Amino acid sequence: MNAQDRAETTPHETGGTTAADDVAVAAGADPASREPGAGGVDGADPDFAHSASRGDARPVSFGRRVLAQPAAKLGFLLTGIVLVLALIGPFVVPAWTGYGPNSFAGKPFQTGIFGTDNLGRDVLSRFLEGGWRLLMYSALATVLGVGLGAVLGMLAAFRGGWLDALIMRCGDVLLAIPQLVFALLAVTVLGPQGWVLVMVIGVTHAPRVARVIRAATAGVVAEDFVLASQMYAVPQWKILARDVVPNIMGPLMVEVGLRLTYSIGAVASLSFLGLGMQPPTPDWGLMINENRIALALQPWGVILPVIAIAVLTVGTNLIADAVAGASAGRVRTTKKTSRKRSEKGS
Questions:
Q1: Could you tell me where the Low complexity compositional bias lies (predicted)?
Q2: pLDDT confidence of 160, banded at 50, 70, 90?
């Protein structure tokens, strides 16, 4: 039976066609018709077919693949601890410590549970109050950088030609400028404000994200289902939204994790250098700068924010690594989990 006969005798059971169906139709075959015994997928894995015969062939979601890795669980734990301190802290500062973040609590560098800072303000109060700004600015910078870079990378790969060259060359220019120099120029012109931090860090992230997304998009654009959509004159925005974006979500999520990690360090570093939050605003990076002169006398003003920033950075880095492993199919499981799966399979 040829492909045309199969197309006439096999009805479509779905209510519409996908990009893969368009390719099959263009080739003269019905995508709903499959050879018996192939499991519905050409070149299917025998292990997958065996698991399907047992009735447990449900596809594993991306989130489950991430959480299957021990590094992801540790990363979420570390990140969650800092998130709770940073987000809940401002609401419990007056009741818990008895002092506001800018209230006078004693002599400068006075000893105690966590003591006072260089101006006699309670260190714990300022620590609990100063974390949410770091998280907010880091998240906004990540969204700006990844969003801008993803759009530019997809356009460069999808359109090609002079637009691709223009986007990549502009990215090369931005990459050639050190982030600190760019931040100094922006702060000199616009002043030390939070949105300036977000803009500087986000713009410096965009070229790096664009390069990664451009490479991922170029591989998807060359696939047959995208070519079929173009052949049927599907609008470009619909091709990007329906065919390209779902197939680059793995690299995109990896970039989100990596850029968030870099944003945390960049926001803290720029605040430490006086290019971010200004006194008397409570901020972890600013606390390190204010209390470093008396590190030996009263170290808690430096130790608390340093530990929080380090734990948050390690946690987000572990999550990013787990996302990268899940995207590439490298799922590490414990021996106990592997033993349970083998027993279930037998």
A1: 14-30
A2: confident
